[in-house]
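Narrative summary of target 7.
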Amino acid sequence: MSDRFGDELETRARVLLEFVDKTMDVIERYEHKFLIPERVVPEIRSFARSTSRLDGYAREDGAYAIRSLYFDTPALDLYMANDREQGRRFKARVRMYPGATSPYFLEVKQRVLDVIVKSRAPVPGDRWREAIDGDGGILEALPERSRTGVRAFASKVLAHHLEPVLIVEYEREAYVSEVDSYARLTFDRKIRVQSRTTLDLETDDRHWRSIDHVVQTQTSEPVTVLELKFERRPPVWMHAMVRSLELVRWSFSKYCYGLRNELTLPSADRTATALPPGSV
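Modeled conformation, tokenized:
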């Protein structure tokens, strides 16, 4: 791909980002991922604390839980696009936060090269299925920005014949920059998945499969998914941290990695599920 063509794609993506930002809630702009040894986390955390505060939704232990229901086509086209790292691709999911009193979020995460446009529409936790089905009653009860986000999600579901495929859950330790307009650093751990083919976010503890345990990642030591999120360019402190610690970007899609494990490993091979919390 030529540099000129790549620049044109990023320009178009930024235009789309500006349009979407005016009509619905947009969370992320650019995103870099790293798969790092757990032993490196304290040093990275020290960098983060020099400029950032712990996310306000964190529990006393500094983390909070995230659970998402991912959608895909019957042929798993979204999985394939992500696995091939296509320049243009998207994911559709419903997200909630176990243990927290908050709405559910209908999210569409689109990528054009390195530009991320993630829309999220908050809906009442007991009516998110109605929102996906396009029920007029729930739409009328939502603020305009939420209605726009719900329609964007529902249009993706209808246009691509999307259906539930997989639940992904993990613990997130997040830091929010206090010196940048938008910058976040997150550690994701205890990532686990279970298949789901219905509009349901309830889970069965017997069916979890851990995907970040050393048995599954085939690494010599425990690892953590590090994500850096920012606008346009990485903040100076992030750039300095990556250079100082010689971090290397690593493509790690929780959905793709989890689905691949569900599709290829035996049902009984859920090695890390029985391990006690904190053992990975």
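The chain has nine helices and eleven strands.
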